[in-house]
């Protein structure tokens, strides 16, 4: 493919994407294909000779598109949103065209400096503590996901806990970490990867609203200390994956400070809502946090992957992750005047992800993002109101922002059948969870394209499918 | 930005990228900006109101472009190549437009199945062992980088070594891993992240060609066993970062088998060369490997990030990384008929990276990639020939594929000055390493656009700058 072909095909793909996104409602949201169905359509071996892009793109449309689950559909209410947006797609395109590596400042200064800059912008936009600014002791970095951010927090906290304590890892296998029973699975995964094992995680009970109970946290820490364990990390969640429950940060932070534990705060989806002053309440107590993350790739219209991870003390992170082989040494790094983000993350190489974030923040403006968040939250509340008017439904967790957890009054199998029938229509995609050990449907409003009429249609469909299962 | 704006700007960016790549030689390869220079040009706060893309893109060209180091320049010979290519950029664009998540098979079946499929294609193209095929006990997955692949290998190997051994992590802090003194820093970084610490890594001496010495490896394992350590992992490198040295896989594999250690093989850049039968020699003994990775994002024209990671026994990997919270359960996963790649990697979420790999393999064809590899290797050898004809230079490591490590006869400071002068011209970018404890220049030929006249110009420049430092 030469430059001329690239121009022609680039234009065609841009137009195809615009058409796709304008008409994405016409596809079944959840792909209906069976396991193996896509692979069966593909030739067993790679071609020896070049093929035309005409043929390749025809195959994409014919053989691959049927196996796509349409995350960009306005009728996608499953999991959490993973929005793209037009400016963000352009950001990915331009980053791909430039093809630079941001492992060191020197390997593309703009890649590092723009990242530092927009992460500082976000500190201001979300009202985060000033210690997360790059001009302080801390700073921000883009990670691929909140899972990786949690792993970075675990290794930084472990480094801090073990140095000056035993001086050597492996000698303190009795480190213990704390998170609520509702915390994301990535907390346990990070502890396992870090070699601390599942047993190091203390799952703290939650209250009726599914938020961590601080008094239980303190009790667990005290018990562990008495038994010779070494508590080192608390992970608080602002907006759990299951029900969007908010752990009370202020009392948790107070405990973290009194007992000298690292406090990591995971606000993966909900963090974006802090751009609206009226929804910033959940950040109360964030000044206690040693690290914090949220995902613009969820609710801010920035293509996956883009998780913003902040630390209060960058040295703790760098000590845990820094490696300086000879082939990466350079005068800029040794001057101490630059940030080398390879020391702030698990991998060495890194893409130019700040570009899409910069495009989105400028093309939307803070007000544009605020109005998006406000619309989604209003729509979720509207949906909850409709549910509440029908006694066959129950809402099983507080509707604080844009997630509604609900179920039909009845047993789990009824609700499983309900979900299965809804998703099989292709008109809507919801996911599920277990709340108080009962099968529960999740309705998360977060797609850029979701308007009131979509939520209304969803409600009508839900109502109709409920009719087929339960008498009014 | 609406769909109309997106079409217009998408077309403009596609054309800009084509112009950029056609004229990338006109920029200084290494950005000449000083630390902080880019940030100074940017406003301190994000805008409250939306800005026009005209303004944003003008700012990009005016304020950001000067801070780009041009990895796509044909005159880029530093580190390793990180090629993009036209089909790959289109793959990134389309993946961004679709905006799907591949964490579970269900969340976009095509995303998973195409990945499995093209990774099987590569097993055939590179002549990898059949146990890495998805129809066997193993299989392949796309990771972001070789660093993450190594970390996955470490946790899988640790899981295998500890189960049935102590049953509990933390109880076996005496696990030891083995890699050559020339192995990539990511091996030590992975061991540190995994909580085993730097002390767990035994750095095995190398021979004159900078390849691991198997007899030293065996001796180290025996010594550790005698002293109550538990050897669990060998990382062999096929093409070290520093000098592209190849560890002898067959004797290493034999040791791994006899002592029951997990063998991970890192072929990050060099792996691509195995697509040419005449360069596949370094894979001899690969049937002993438990895991293997190489990076199409280096030398295969696939945009970063795209590391292909293979395991011989997928269950070992899944046991180490699998977490099944209620909100991710689904009938397809529970049927056992599908792959859920979140269990094969550190993060949960994942982009649709298989698309760009599929585009490249089809648009280039195997023959297209082979001719690229052959051209680069021939050019590196040509460059080495020129060097050898000038007695002021010495080549300090074998030129096996596309990397030439050389220096001026003289001390380190002379060579540092030499490199600094070369890179300051902006006409060329080389990086450096230390070989036998001496400062050494690295000349790696791997950019898609690098033709004979570029290498010839590079040689002329090198010759000229040498003249300014050392008499003929």
Structural account:
The structure is a homodimer of 472-residue chains. Chain A is 42% helix and 12% strand. By secondary structure, the first copy, chain A, is an alpha/beta fold. The first copy, chain A, has a domain at 100-351: Type I PLP-dependent aspartate aminotransferase-like (Major domain) (Aspartate Aminotransferase, domain 2), CATH 3.40.640. Chain A has a seven-stranded mixed β-sheet, with helices on both faces. In chain A, α4 (86-98) packs antiparallel against α13 (354-388) and α5 packs parallel to α13. Chain A is globular and about 60 Å long. The N and C termini of chain A lie far apart (61 Å). The model of chain A is unreliable at 164-171 (pLDDT under 50). At the A-B interface, α1, α2, α3, α4 and α5 of A face α1, α2, α3, α4 and α5 of B.
At CATH level 3, the topology of the domain at 100-351 in chain A is Aspartate Aminotransferase, domain 2
* Rg measurement of chain A, Å: 24 Å
CATH architecture of the domain at 100-351 in chain A: 3-Layer(aba) Sandwich
Distance between the termini of chain A: 61 Å
Characterize the quaternary organization of these chains: homodimer
Q: Largest interface, by Cβ-Cβ below 8 angstroms: which chains and how many residues each? A: A-B, 148 and 148 residues
In CATH's first tier, which class of the domain at 100-351 in chain A applies?
Alpha Beta
Total strands of chain A: the figure is 11
> How much helicity do the residues of chain A have?
40-55%
> Which series of helices and strands of chain A comes N to C?
HHHHHEHEHEHEHEEHEHHHEEHEEH
């Amino acid at each position: 493919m030469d430059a001329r072909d690239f121009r022609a095909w680039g234009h065609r793909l841009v137009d195809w994407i615009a058409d796709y996104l304008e008409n994405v409602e016409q596809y079944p949201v959840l792909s209906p294909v069976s396991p193996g169905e896509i692979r069966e359509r593909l030739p067993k071996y790679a071609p020896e000779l070049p093929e035309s892009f005409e043929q390749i793109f025809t195959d994409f449309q014919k053989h691959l598109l049927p196996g796509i689950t349409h995350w960009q559909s306005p009728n996608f209410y499953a999991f959490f949103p993973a929005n793209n947006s037009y400016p963000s797609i352009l950001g990915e395109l331009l980053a791909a065209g430039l093809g630079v590596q941001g492992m060191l400042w020197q390997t593309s200064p703009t890649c590092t400096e723009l990242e530092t800059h927009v992460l500082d912008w976000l500190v201001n936009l979300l009202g985060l503590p000033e210690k997360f600014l790059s001009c302080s002791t801390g700073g921000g970095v883009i990670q691929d996901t909140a899972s990786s951010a949690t792993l970075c927090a675990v290794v930084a906290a472990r480094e801090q806990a073990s140095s000056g304590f035993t001086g050597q890892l492996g000698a303190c296998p009795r480190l213990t970490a704390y998170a609520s029973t509702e915390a994301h699975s990535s907390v346990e995964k990070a502890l396992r990867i870090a070699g601390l094992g599942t047993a190091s995680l203390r799952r703290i009970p939650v209250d009726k609203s599914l938020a961590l109970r601080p008094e239980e946290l303190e009790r667990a820490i005290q018990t562990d200390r008495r038994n010779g364990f070494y508590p080192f990390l608390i992970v608080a969640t602002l907006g759990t994956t299951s029900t969007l429950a908010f752990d009370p940060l202020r009392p948790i932070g107070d405990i973290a400070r009194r007992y000298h534990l690292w406090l990591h705060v995971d606000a993966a989806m909900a963090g974006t809502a802090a751009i609206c002053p009226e929804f910033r309440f959940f950040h109360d107590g964030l000044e206690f946090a040693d690290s914090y993350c949220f995902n613009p790739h969820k609710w801010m219209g920035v293509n996956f992957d883009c998780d913003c991870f902040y630390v209060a003390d960058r040295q703790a992170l760098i000590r845990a992750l820094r490696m300086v082989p000879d082939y990466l040494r350079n005068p800029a790094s040794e001057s101490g005047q630059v940030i080398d983000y390879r020391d702030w993350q698990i991998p060495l190489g890194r893409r130019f992800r700040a570009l899409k974030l910069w495009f989105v923040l400028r093309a939307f403006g803070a007000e544009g993002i605020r109005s998006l968040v406000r619309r989604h939250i209003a729509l979720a509340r509207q949906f909850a109101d409709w549910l509440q008017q029908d006694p066959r439904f129950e809402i099983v967790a507080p509707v604080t922002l844009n997630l509604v957890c609900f179920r039909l009054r009845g047993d789990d199998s009824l609700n499983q059948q309900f979900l299965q029938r809804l998703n099989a229509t292709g008109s809507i995609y919801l996911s599920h969870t277990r709340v108080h050990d009962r099968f529960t449907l999740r309705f998360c409003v977060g797609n850029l394209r979701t308007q009131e009429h979509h939520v209304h249609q969803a409600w009508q469909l839900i109502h109709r499918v409920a009719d087929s299962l339960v008498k009014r």
